[in-house]
Design a protein that fits this description.
This protein has about 500 residues and is α+β, with helices and mostly antiparallel strands. It is built from eleven helices and 21 strands. Strand 9 and strand 10 form a beta hairpin.
Length: about 500
C-alpha cells in the first residue's frame, strides 16, 4: 500500500507541475507573467498554504482535499487531532461537518424526488393528514421550502439552550421532542430565514419518503464506501475522530460534548476531508443524481412573489446549496458550516468538474469558502489577467496602505523549488486588521505564491487566506474578506 501511495504521489506531483506549466503559457495582459523558474508542484503549494493558515489561525488541526473529474488529486493534513494525546491529523481523521451536513440532506431530497418517492413542492400535510412529527399549523410548508430556508421555520431559540444532551434515533423523534407547540415566524414562501430546525423537519420528510431512518438512507444510498457518517460523541475511544476545540484569549480548550442527533441532517455528520471531496466528485460526475435533478437542486429558488431567494451575503439559494461565483467569476456550488469545535466548507465547480473540502476542529472567524478556493488554486489554470511580478528575494520593507494610513512592514523573501514565499512582520497597529475574535492578532504572517513570482499569492493570516494580486512589478492588492476592502502593497524596485 505504501509503495502504491508513493507511486501515486510522484504521478500527482508530475501532473500538477505540468498543469501549472501549461497555465503559465496562457495569454495575459500587456504585461504578461514570464516564468523565471519552474513552478512548485501543486501538492507542495497547497500543503504550505494549509500549514500556514492553521498556524496563523491558532486552530489545532485542519484537513483538506481536492478532486478533479471524480479523482482525488490531493489531500493534506496539518496540526493536531487530539492535543492531549499528541495525535496528529492524518488522512483518516474525521471532523464535524456542521452545516455542510445540509447538502447531503438536500441531495437526499433530490434523489427521492428523482425516484418519485416524494413531491418536493407538495404540502407536507398531503390530503389534510399532517404527520405527527409536524407541528400543528405547519401543514402548508413544502420540502423545497425547507431546503431553501423559506418555510418560515425558526432557527435555534432561547428555549433550545440545552439541546445536545440527548440522543435521537430518528429525525421524526427529534422533531416531536423539540418543535411541538412552536409557531412559524413567517408565511411559507415569503421570507428567507435560515433554520437548522427546518432541516430536522426535512430529514423527517426524507424518512417518511424512504421508509428508513435518515442515517440508514444516507448510508445505503448516498455515501457508500466513504468515511461519512453521523457523529457519535459516545465513541470517546475512537482515535480517528478529531477532538473539538474552542479558541480562547488564553489558548485552546476542548469543547463541551454535544449530541447533534437532534439535527442530524442539518449539523450532525462527520467526515474525512477526502471523503467529503470525493462525495462532491460523485455528485459532479452524475453518480448520485441524473442531470435533470442535479440541475433542479442547483437552480435558483423563488419566493411566492417571484423574487429570487438570496442568503444575507448575496448568493442565490438553490435546494440546500448556495449558488455563487468564485474570485475569477466561475459558477460555484457551495456550503459552509460553523459550530462549536468545527469550521467546514465544500466547494464544487460544475464547469471544471472540480471540488475542494476544508475541515477544522475549532470554531474561528474566517471566510472559509475563500480559504478553500485558494487552497485549490495550485491545481487550476492561472487566471489569464495576471501581471508579471518577480519574486523579490531577500529582505525588503513593504508599504501597506489602508484607510489613508501607510505602514512599513519588514519582509524576508525567498524562492525555493519554484515557490516564492515571504515572512512579514506586521506592526502592532496593522496586525488587528488581519484578525478577529476568537483568534488573537499575529505579528508574523506568511505569504505564499500561487503562481510564478508574486503575480498571485495568498497571505496566511488569523482571518485565513487573503488573495494577493500583483498590479505591477512592485505593487499588489490584498482583498479582505469581510467587506471586500482592498489593501494596497508596494515594495522597492529590484536592482
Amino acid at each position: 500500500m505504501k509503495k502504491h501511495r508513493r507511486t501515486r504521489t510522484v504521478a500527482l506531483l508530475a501532473w500538477a507541475a505540468a498543469v501549472a506549466a501549461q497555465a503559465t503559457a496562457q495569454a495575459t495582459t500587456s504585461r504578461p507573467v514570464q516564468q523565471q523558474t519552474p513552478p512548485a508542484p501543486g501538492a507542495l503549494v497547497a500543503q504550505a498554504l494549509l500549514d500556514a493558515m492553521r498556524e496563523a489561525s491558532g486552530v489545532p488541526g485542519m484537513g483538506a482535499a481536492v478532486v478533479q473529474q471524480g479523482k482525488l488529486v490531493w489531500q493534506g493534513s496539518s496540526g493536531r487531532a487530539d492535543i492531549a494525546r499528541h495525535q496528529p491529523v492524518d488522512a483518516d481523521t474525521r471532523f464535524r461537518l456542521a452545516s455542510v451536513s445540509k447538502v447531503f440532506t438536500a441531495t437526499a431530497l433530490a434523489r427521492l424526488a428523482q425516484e418519485e418517492r416524494i413531491d418536493p413542492h407538495a404540502p407536507l400535510s398531503a390530503a389534510g393528514n399532517p404527520p405527527d412529527w409536524l407541528p400543528a399549523g405547519w401543514g402548508a410548508i413544502t420540502a423545497a421550502q425547507l431546503a431553501a430556508h423559506t418555510a418560515g421555520v425558526p432557527h435555534y431559540e432561547l428555549q433550545d439552550t440545552g439541546r445536545g444532551g440527548r440522543a435521537f434515533s430518528s429525525a421524526q423523534d427529534a422533531a416531536r421532542a423539540h418543535l411541538a407547540g412552536r409557531s412559524l415566524l413567517a408565511t411559507p414562501g415569503q421570507q428567507y430565514r435560515y433554520s437548522s430546525w427546518g432541516y430536522t423537519l426535512l430529514s423527517a420528510a426524507i424518512e417518511a419518503g424512504s421508509g428508513r431512518s435518515f442515517a440508514d438512507y444516507l448510508a445505503g444510498t448516498l455515501t457508500q464506501g466513504l468515511a461519512i457518517a453521523p457523529e457519535d460523541i459516545y465513541r470517546s475511544a475512537d482515535s480517528s475522530r478529531s477532538r473539538p476545540y474552542t479558541l480562547t484569549p488564553t489558548g485552546v480548550e476542548e469543547a463541551e460534548a454535544h449530541d447533534y442527533s437532534y439535527s442530524l441532517g442539518g449539523a450532525g455528520l462527520e467526515a474525512t476531508p477526502a471523503a467529503l471531496a470525493l462525495w462532491g466528485g460523485r455528485l459532479l460526475q452524475g453518480d448520485l443524481l441524473i442531470e435533470r435533478w442535479r440541475q433542479w437542486m442547483w437552480s435558483p429558488q423563488q419566493h411566492s412573489d417571484g423574487r429570487a431567494v438570496r442568503e444575507p451575503r448575496g448568493d442565490t439559494m438553490g435546494i440546500g446549496w448556495r449558488l455563487g461565483h468564485d474570485l475569477q467569476g466561475l459558477p460555484l456550488r457551495h456550503h459552509a458550516g460553523v459550530t462549536s469545535g468545527a469550521r467546514s466548507a465544500l466547494l464544487l465547480w460544475p464547469t471544471l468538474g472540480m471540488g475542494v473540502s476544508l475541515l477544522s476542529n475549532a470554531l474561528w472567524t474566517t471566510a472559509i469558502e475563500r480559504n478553500a478556493e485558494l487552497l485549490s488554486a495550485p491545481f487550476r489554470a492561472l487566471p489569464a489577467d495576471l501581471v508579471r511580478s518577480p519574486c523579490p528575494t531577500g529582505a525588503h520593507t513593504l508599504s501597506i496602505s489602508d484607510a489613508g494610513q501607510t505602514h512599513a512592514v519588514p519582509a524576508q523573501f525567498s524562492e525555493t523549488a519554484g515557490l516564492c514565499r515571504a515572512t512579514l512582520q506586521l506592526p502592532e497597529a496593522l496586525a488587528p486588521l488581519f484578525s478577529a475574535a476568537p483568534q488573537r492578532p499575529r505579528r508574523t504572517v506568511q505569504l505564499i505564491a500561487l503562481g510564478p513570482g508574486l503575480a498571485r499569492a495568498a497571505l496566511a493570516t488569523p482571518l485565513g487566506l487573503l488573495e494577493w494580486r500583483a498590479t505591477g512589478p512592485q505593487a499588489a492588492q490584498l482583498r479582505l474578506p469581510a467587506d471586500s476592502r482592498v489593501v494596497t502593497v508596494r515594495w522597492p524596485q529590484l536592482p
